[in-house]
Amino acid sequence: MEGAKAVRNKQVLFRSFLTGAPTEENMQLRTAEAELRVPAGSGAVLVKNLFLSCDPYMRGRMREYYGSYIPPFQPGKVIEGFGVSKVIDSDNPNFSVDDIVYGMTGWEEYSLILKVEGLRKIEISDIPLSYYLGLLGMPGFTAYAGFYEVCSPKKGELVFVSAASGAVGQLVGQLAKLNGCFVVGSAGSNLKVDILKNKLGFDEAFNYKDEPDLDLALKRYFPSGIDIYFENVGGRMLDAALLNMRPHGRIAVCGLVSQHGVSDPEGIRNLACLIFKRIRMQGFLQSDYLHLFPEFLSKMAEYYRQGKIVYIEDIAEGLENAPKAFVGLFSGRNTGKQVVCISRD
Q1: 279-290: per-residue pLDDT in tens?
Q2: Helix, strand, or coil (residue 179)
Q3: 298 pairs with which residues across the strands?
């Protein structure tokens, strides 16, 4: 793009490391300048960001901890996360101008992406672009890999999903139904419970905020116990689930959202159940199973086309609303996958 000019580039910066729940004050809006040109010889691509993803794992990047699978955000720097973007300049033979891609990008209007290894071109044109941050993106693949590879489901098994209306949980429940399982989900509002039962096809669902005793709640829905627990919450929910697991049950630990905003995480009291019930509890990352990604993409797209899976999004409009949308994840403000729309063209 010879002679390209600089343009104004709205950005969201990370302010400082934190120990409690994230707030909007932990982020800062700024307008900088962006050169609409890729440095020659860099192998990079320049993109215009269209949609950004808000994901709970990003809270872990807001603490000063370098022992994780992904490094922390740096104070004063642009926040990064998964996004769908349009290529506007390229010095990489694998990407051309006007390609639509998804992968890690900046929380800003324009991003220069130097590490292009994780970028994927969007080849399927009959599915909404924002779905590549959910149904066909990291959350969808997390649900797919976690359910099939970690949970090892069998037809007729009894499945419990916490945070079941979220980006991952809503898909785990639907995959379990397609696999012939009985599925119950928990969520944080009566509206979400209604969505689980009447739109997503769960057999049963309950509002955990209305349950003073989670152990008794699970016994009500699973009188004979739980075969598979897809864990997104942790804390009291995990403790109650352990008491209700059947022998040789499986627990896939995907997230612990109830613990993300606390500096002193709750301990788990019922771990002895792992021993005498011979339960397998395993944490996992979707990146452990990337060899399955092409299979996942093909199957999930076809399920969607056939109407076998539906997907629910919560879209915030404008980069300026990204901090509020992200913070809302930790109080259950969103219904479905939280996405921020930066531009639709």
Answers
A1: 999 999 999 999
A2: coil
A3: none
